[in-house]
Amino acid sequence: MIYMLLGTGFEETEAIAPLDLLRRAGIQAATVGINGKIVTGSHGIGVQADMELGEMDLTNLEGIILPGGLGGVASIRASKEAMEAVRFAWENGKLTAAICAGPTVLADLGITGGKNATCYPGCEAQMGSAILAENAAAVTDGKLITGTSAGCAIPFGLQLIAALKGQEAADTIAKQIVIR
Question: Can 100 be counted among the known catalytic residues?
C-alpha cells in the first residue's frame, strides 16, 4: 500500500493528481488524514481521507508520499506519528516521495542528504546537503522521488508509477491522459 499523508493546508493538486495517476495504474494508494478524516487543503477544498493516521498499517507499506502546501507540511512536521512513518518507510527501503515544500520534511529527517532531489523554488536552503536539480519537474534517486510544484504534479505522479510498476506502465498512463 502507498500512503499519502494529508495535513490541513496540503496543496490539493500535488495530492489529487498523483493519487489519481497511481490508481489509474492499478496501484493501491490510500490517503491518510493527519488531522482527522476530513482534511481541508490550502485552497479550501475539503477531501475525505481514506483513513486517519492511526489506521495506517506499516506492515503492508510499499511507500509514502508527502504533498506540499505550507500548512500540510507543518501538519506533518507537528505529528510525531507522521514523522515516524516517513522515517520507517525510508529506513525499510520503501519508496519515499515528496513534492513542493514536502521534500524539506525529508531533509529534516536526513533522507535527502547526498541524494539528487528537487523542491519548490525558495525552499532550497531547507534541503540540507541534497544535490538539487535545477529546472527538473521531478527527480528520482533510488527509492527517493521529489517533485518541484503543483505544476509538476503529473510528471511527479508518472515517476511514482515508473518506480512502482515500471516505465512501460507510466508511459501507458501518460498516453491515456494525453500528456504532451
Answer: yes
